[in-house]
């Protein structure tokens, strides 16, 4: 990503470029998450189908809103967000979601791992932008609030009464969204 010719007052073009690079990765991760969530919505089966099917759609809509606010922040900083599928696939640093039609429990365990990767990388981006651009940091922190809540919703489906997460089916299903294995 090239250095913007202009940016917001108080942020240098060089600092804006660093923030824009982080935001571009967050944009890719959020776009991928929205698509993955919709994929799960379409492919979940089993006795818990309707609960998961209806839980996922509000998450899709909220993540799509995060995509829009992330891209708009990039434009505000003088950047040009790239939301094309080709750029996402070429630049992502995580493995593709592997489950197709599968039981709700398998999808929820896999989604838990997906959310873990997204959240870890969002936290890193929020931390890295704090001193350079607290407005971007605030945006990312706000998104983290929702992402962590969505993970809680997902985890509640595969948590035991003793507080242990059951995740055996997920090992093959999804790599965290932060890094390729």
Automatic annotation (TrEMBL):
Ranges of residues in domain Ferritin/DPS: 21-159
InterPro entries, sorted: DPS_DNA-bd, DPS_DNA-bd_CS, Ferritin-like, Ferritin-like_SF, Ferritin_DPS_dom
CDD domains according to UniProt: DPS
SUPFAM superfamilies: Ferritin-like
A Pfam family annotated for this UniProt entry: Ferritin
PANTHER family recorded: DNA PROTECTION DURING STARVATION PROTEIN, GENERAL STRESS PROTEIN 20U
Family, similarity comment: Belongs to the Dps family.
The name this protein goes by in its record: Dps family protein
Species whose genome carries this gene: Streptacidiphilus cavernicola
Organism classification: Bacteria, Bacillati, Actinomycetota, Actinomycetes, Kitasatosporales
